[in-house]
Specification:
Length: about 100
């Protein structure tokens, strides 16, 4: 049962981390198309890439750890929960920063 919980938490964390990565990629693409007027957005996106990379790597590591025993499942849950929460908070902050319906 613990293994199933660890796998589910790792998958949710990976989805959140990939969501952040995808959103940053979309923002970066739009900023490059705008040229000079998109420089501030491109700078912000460049500053957020490390967060996206670390949370994605953490979620992938957690998913790999789920194939171990009970102790590794607990470690995987902790890593995945931290990665998912960080990615979710970063995604929410980025979306709020560039939301146009304010």
């Amino acid at each position: 049962m613990l293994d199933l919980i660890a796998v589910l938490v790792a998958i949710v964390a990976l989805v959140a981390a990939l969501g952040l990565t995808g959103y940053l990629a979309l923002l970066n693409s739009a900023a490059r198309k705008r040229g000079v007027s998109g420089n501030s957005v491109a700078t912000y996106v460049r500053s957020r890439w490390p967060v996206a990379g670390i949370t994605t790597a953490g979620a992938l590591l957690a998913w790999l750890l789920t194939s171990g025993g009970g102790f590794l499942d607990v470690v995987a849950i902790l890593i995945a929960a931290g990665s998912g929460a960080t990615a979710g908070k970063a995604l929410t902050a980025t979306m709020d920063r560039y939301r146009t319906d304010k």
